[in-house]
Amino acid sequence: MKYRSVFDIIGPVMIGPSSSHTAGAARIGRIARLLFGSTPHRAHIEFCGSFAQTYRGHGTDVAIVGGLMDFDTSDPRIKDALTIAKDIGLEISIAVNDSQGEHPNTAWIHLANETRGITVKGISIGGGKIAILETDGFEMNLTGDAWTTLVFHKDHFGMIASVARVLADHRINIGKMEMSRKAKGKDALLIIETDQEVNETVGTEMKRFKDVALVRILPPL
Amino acid sequence: MNFSTIEELVQLAETQGKSLSDIMIEEESAAAELPPEQIIAKMRVQLETMEQAVQRGLTEEVKSRSGLTGGDARKLESYLQRGQAVSGLRVMRSVSRAIATNEVNAAMGTIVATPTAGASGVIPGCLFGLAEELGADRDAMTRFLFTAGAIGYVIANRSFISGAAGGCQAEVGSASAMAAGAIVEMAGGTPRQSAHAAAIALKNTLGLVCDPVAGLVEVPCVMRNAMGAANAMVAADLALAQVESVVPADEVILAMYRVGQAMPGTLKETALGGLATTPTGERHRQRLFGSTAEQHPLQDKGEIKE
Q1: Quick one: A29 and A118 in the same domain?
Q2: Does A132 share its domain with A159?
C-alpha cells in the first residue's frame, strides 16, 4: 500500500500550490538534507518529466530548497526559500533533464560542502507522498513514513546481526529492513525502518562496529 | 487497514451496523496504535486549517503571484447575497468555498491537501457549504473528513491521485468522489449509498485531463474545483434518491486508472497540451516565464542558473 494513513489523504497541511510539486518536493529536499547530515554549501537540482516542465509554476525549486534548509511542508518561509538560501550562503543551481523512463515527478539532488558530497534521487507520487529511490548509487525505497536508520558499511558477515542486536538491546522493533550493496565485500547499506524512535546513542553504538562508515537516523516526516 | 476496496469498506460498515466514518476512525486508530480520541483530535486540526483557508478566501484580497487567479470567491459571495444563483444557494455556497480554498492555495497560502493541493477546494467547499443547513456539528464535520478519507484511501492505493500520474480525473475526480460519499453520510444516507455517490461522481469526471496554463495550479484548476464540488452534490443527491451506479465504485476506480495510463503525457500536468497550449495559454506562459512549449527547457538542456 502506497498510502497507509487517512492523514495521507486528508493532509498534509501545506503551503500551496501543489501537493506533489510543492509539498512532495519540500519533503524530498528535507530527506536529502537529513541524508547529507547538515545544511550543504552547494545544491544542484535536476528535474525530470512533469517537474521539468512545470517546476517554476509550482514552486518546486523553492520547495526543494526550503526542504534543504529543513523547512516543513507547512512552513511559510518556503515561499522565500531562494532568498533565504542566498542569505545563508547556500548556492543553488537548477537544470532540467529529459531522460526517458523516469517517474514523471523525479528530482536528482546533488549536495556538497568543502569536504563531501551526496547524490539523491527522489520521486513525488501524489498528495505529498514521496520516495527516495537512490542515494549515492544505492537503490532504496525510502518513504519517510517511519523512523529510518541507514547504516553505511563494508559488506561483512554478521553486520545485520550486530546492528539488529543494538536495536534489540534498546527494545526497538524493526518494521522493515532493506539491504543494498554495490558488490560482494564492497560498500553496502542497511536501511532499517523501526516502530520506535531511534536516538543518537543507538547511532553511536552502531558506529563503534569496525566496518561501519556512517550512520544516519531519519525521523518520520 | 482491514479494507482495500470500497466493497470491503462498505461491508465492514454494513455487517457491524456502523458508518463509514466509524470504520475509518477504528482502522486508523488500530494502524497508528493510538486511541480514537487522538485520531479525531488530529482530524480536528485539519478541519480548522480548512476553515481558516475558506475564511481567508472569502474575506481577504487573495491574489496569486501570476495574477491569473484570486478574487472570484468574493465575487461569487456578493452575487449570492443578491439572492440570485440559478443552481441554488446550497450548490453555489459550496462552490464559492471550493473556489476560496483553491485561490488561497494558488496564492501559496496554507491549505490541507484533500487528496492533493490542486484539488484542495472540493472537500472543504462541500463541507462548509452544507454543514450548517444539514445541521452538522463539529463532530459530524470531522466525520465528513474521515468518510472522504476512507474513499480516498482506496482510490489512492488502487489508482492514482496525482495529475502527473493520472490527469485531473485523479485529482478533482477523486476529490469529488470522496466528497460525494461524505455528503451522503452527513445527509443521513447509508454506506452503500455513499459508495454509489462516489462511483457516480468519479464516472462523470473520467478522462478529465491536467492541462494547467503556464504549469500553474490556477487555470483551470480553480474552476475545476468549483465543478468538482457541484458534481459531488449532484452525485450525492442521486444516490440519496436511491439511484444506483450500474458500474460499482471499485470498477470505476480501476477504469480511472486505465484511462490515466492511456492518457498522453502532454495532458498529465506537463503544460504541453490542452488549455496550456491554447493561444491564450501560450501568451501567459510567455508573459510569466518567457518561453513557449516549443522552446521549453525539455528541448534546451542548458543549465538554468537561478
Answers
A1: yes
A2: no
Q: Which residue has the cell 523512523?
A: A147
Name the domain count of chain A: 2
- Give one DSSP letter per residue of A132-151, joined into a string: EEEETTEEEEE-SSSEEEEE
Reported pTM? 0.90
For residue A59, the distance in angstroms to the closest alpha carbon of chain B comes to 9
- Domains along chain B with CATH numbers: 10-289 (1.10.4100)
Q: Determine contact: B164 vs chain A, CB below 8 A.
A: yes
CB contact under 8 A, A7 and B116: no
User: Which of A47, A51, A54 to probe the B interface (max B CBs under 10 A)?
Assistant: A54
A92 and A191 part of one domain: no
pLDDT, tens digit only, all 221 positions of chain A: 889 999 999 999 999 999 999 999 999 999 999 999 999 999 999 999 889 988 988 889 999 999 999 999 999 999 999 999 999 999 999 999 877 677 889 999 999 999 999 999 999 998 899 999 999 999 999 999 999 999 999 998 999 999 999 999 999 999 999 999 888 889 999 999 999 999 999 999 999 999 999 999 999 98
Q: Which of A20, A57, A128 sits opposite B215 (nearest CB)?
A: A57
Instruction: Give the residue from A153, A156, A105 showing the smallest Cα distance to A132.
Output: A105
Q: What is the CA radius of gyration of chain B?
A: 19
The Cα–Cα gap between B101 and B55 comes to 8
Indicate yes or no: CB of B268 within 8 angstroms of CB of A104.
yes
Query: Do A128 and A152 lie in a common domain?
Result: no
Instruction: Report how far Cα A168 is from the mean position of its chain's Cα atoms.
Output: 25
> Is residue A2 included in any domain, yes or no?
no
Q: Clarify whether residues A122 and A156 are in a common domain.
A: no
Q: Which of chain A's residues have a Cβ under 8 Å away from the Cβ of B114?
A: 9-11
Structural domain boundaries enclosing A27 = 16-136
Of A17, A56, A93, the CB nearest to B289: A56
CB A117 within 8 A of CB A49: no
CATH number at residue A42: 3.30.1330.90
Nearest to A10 among B31, B43, B109 (CB): B43
Q: What share of chain A is helix, strand, coil (3-state, %, to 5)?
A: 35, 35, 30
The residue in chain B having the minimum alpha-carbon distance to the alpha carbon of residue A83 is: B306
Verify that A25 and A59 share a domain, yes or no. Answer: yes
Does B114 contact A93 at a Cβ distance shorter than 8 Å? no
Report the complex ipTM: 0.94
Are A23 and B113 within 8 A, CB to CB?
Answer: yes
